[in-house]
Amino acid sequence: MAVHLSVPEFLLPIKGIRLATINAGIRYKNRDDMVLIEAAEGSSVAAVFTRNAFCAAPVTVARAHLAQAPIRYLMINAGNANAGTGSEGLAAATTTCEALAQVAGVNTNQVLPFSTGVIGVQLPVAKVTSALPELVASLTEDNWMKAARAIMTTDTLPKGISKQVSIGGQTITITGIAKGAGMIHPNMATMLSYIATDAQVEASFLQQTLSSVVDDTFNCITIDGDTSTNDALVLIATGASGVAVGENELATFHAALKEVCLFLAQAIVRDGEGATKFIDVQVEQARSREEAHTVANTVALSPLVKTALFASDPNWGRILAAVGRSPIDSLDVSRISIYLGDTLLVKGGQPSPDYTEAQGQAETKKDEIKIRISLGRGDAVANVWTCDFSFDYVKINAEYRS
Amino acid sequence: MAVHLSVPEFLLPIKGIRLATINAGIRYKNRDDMVLIEAAEGSSVAAVFTRNAFCAAPVTVARAHLAQAPIRYLMINAGNANAGTGSEGLAAATTTCEALAQVAGVNTNQVLPFSTGVIGVQLPVAKVTSALPELVASLTEDNWMKAARAIMTTDTLPKGISKQVSIGGQTITITGIAKGAGMIHPNMATMLSYIATDAQVEASFLQQTLSSVVDDTFNCITIDGDTSTNDALVLIATGASGVAVGENELATFHAALKEVCLFLAQAIVRDGEGATKFIDVQVEQARSREEAHTVANTVALSPLVKTALFASDPNWGRILAAVGRSPIDSLDVSRISIYLGDTLLVKGGQPSPDYTEAQGQAETKKDEIKIRISLGRGDAVANVWTCDFSFDYVKINAEYRS
Questions:
Q1: Residues 294-333 (B) with a CB less than 8 A from some CB of A
Q2: A12-16, A342-346, B391-395: least confident range
Q3: How many CB atoms lie within 10 A of CB B378?
Q4: Which of A227, B219, B242, B283 has the fewest Cβ atoms within 10 Å of its own Cβ atom?
């Protein structure tokens, strides 16, 4: 049951982007499990990928293709990650790109492949390739919602958002979709997310903006600490609106893109496996953003903190213990304050004399919980967003393959 | 339900050590929750403590006392950690030491206090102090088993072992006890463990040997990645056997102590919260022991690996993904092999062509599972021992305070 997240009411089409979905029967019956996204000729494409050394075959192929040629197609399947599949998996990813290139009339390296699902099972290549003609034939601008659904695995809801901003008096549109919902601890990108805009943005600007925004959004969420083998996020700027984003407009575009990425990243947490609470861990007054992130991350990953919050138990000693074991230099606990919502728990390393269990309970009973930790030794801030740790997380992950 | 662990059949007394237990009513009814351990005058005492910056008040006091005077008493309570209790907690720890010193006729700094249990609740000082006269009066050499029971919190079984070895033709005895069972990810020591020997060992030798042994035993276990605020391990050498351990005998003593510590550390894992499987993660052919430990630790901490093993699911892709995200330099996956028991899963970064799901299932159905990862770039080895992640872990930790 996702926390304060519902099906997007609408997703705006992006001029220059067409999408199609199909049930290729890769793993799921009775639902679409493949998506094709076409970018108009002349689009700029930026992407970030997982830093997992055992990255999936499609990640390896996508990285190579991105460096070689202007990208025209993103080909995505759910239900099979094509990860841990060795040279056979690499060949499978390349073969499916070749097949699509032939059907669509482009070069193989103009296709980026993506997979999500079970690791260690070979991709059923024939199922993918035989779905391609119908996919290409059914491309339309209006399929964003269907695409958001077709990339889901253990997600309970499709995730997407559209945003319009004015640049030089003209409107540009950004639409993005994403999927989670386990093995979520992104390092440069999350599981799968696709964002497009009709703005015209030069490729190096686009990549630079995306990398910066991802550092503050997708790289600040965690569900279970497990960085996926398949994380990938692609941002396409088709330019079809005719509105150019130059250096002067970059701040506006950056802010709009950040809003989209933040929504999608938090949506993944809200729909994290077994999630019943959305938890915002904010660390302030740190020496550096990295230090703040490290402490926030340690708290956000603590199974003891997460199980306590699942039980709505204001067991703040577990928060304190997680702060105390954070791998940062010479932490002086006498400068630390900790808040649960607006309730002061710890001040100068000491339990707050005014704190009552009833206050703590009132905060932990909420389904959106804010933990705020002040280190008292600098002015850097970082947030990490996570969810609680419930019976259902264990259930979902113990039964995932059965 | 502990994995292959039973109540110790016997625990041998150590000459020069007397113990007593009592129900002080700190948290538990109908069971003893305080232990007093007395070391004969002239004993050498070594100890290691948690590195959590928010260490508990008794840890702070014990560290100070250990540096000041020859230790005569260890005073332990279960049910209240006296952690996150600020200056009031520090005063409470000192007050209880003063009270015991008065009853027992020693100096305050000859007492080491220890607490385990809920964090963030003030220690009921009066309950502790009023139990002291009876505790001192009932000290005997034969109470090791009762002490092993009285220090338990969420442990389901008492943990202890005795070992005898011959040194220069004479027998020395080592007896140790320990308790877990959550917030277990020791950094220099585990929750609480007390070990004593009648050998005569000079204090600096004793500390050196203990620190080295702990690095290979207690510091290699993890249940949930949460390093406790209260971890403490104390080793007492009473010398009452009259058998001196000098430089020549140190190797024999080291080996015997390691056996005791390894048993106790693994016993904590076997009785980890909700544990149904005992998992040995071994990383070989690493560039350094630290690198091997880092990779083993990443796998041992992965909630996805641990939930899969709870379900006896040989979902080895999750092992591979955890290896791939390990924070070590320039990992070359093409040199990596992964085994589950004797079954080869991955060879040279590729899935083993001979692997069958039935083989994997046969391994994961066992209640003792060995994961072996060869990095193919050095000759260092490290093991991390952990347990699976079950419904009961969530249940125990969601309900711990209720």
A1: 301-304, 307-308, 310-311, 313, 315-318, 320-326, 331, 333
A2: B391-395
A3: 14
A4: B242
The answer to whether residue B365 neighbours chain A at the CB level (below 8 Å) is: no
What is the Cα–Cα distance from A153 to A315, expressed in whole angstroms?
Answer: 33
Nearest Cα neighbor of B360 from B303, B313, B307 is B313
* Terminal Cα distance for chain B, rounded: 21
Mapping DSSP to helix (H, G, I), strand (E, B) and coil, where does residue B217 land? coil
| pLDDT at res. A395 | 83
Residues, chain B? 402
- pTM for the structure as a whole: 0.83
Residues facing residue A30 across a β-bridge: none
CATH (residue range A278-398): 3.10.20.340
Cross-sheet strand order for the sheet of A380-387 = A350-351, A343-347, A337-340, A368-374, A278-286, A380-387
**Which amino acid makes up residue A317?**
G
- Contact B391/A at CB under 8 A: yes
Q: Chain B residues with CB inside 8 Å of A397's CB?
A: 303-304, 307-308, 311
A86 touches chain B (CB under 8 A): yes
Quick check: B119 and A318 CB within 8 A? yes
How far apart are the C-alpha atoms of B311 and B313, rounded to whole Å? 5
Tokens of A48: 């970030």
Give Cα B87 to chain centroid, integer Å.
27
A335 at the B interface (CB within 8 A)? no
Return the structure tokens found at A4. 């304060």
Predicted local distance difference test score (pLDDT) of residue B185: 66
Neighbours of A79 (CB within 10 A): 22
**Interface predicted TM-score (ipTM) of this complex, two decimals:** 0.79
How many Cβ atoms sit within 10 Å of the Cβ of residue B37?
26
- The topology under which CATH files domain B17-270 is L-amino peptidase D-ALA esterase/amidase (3.60.70)
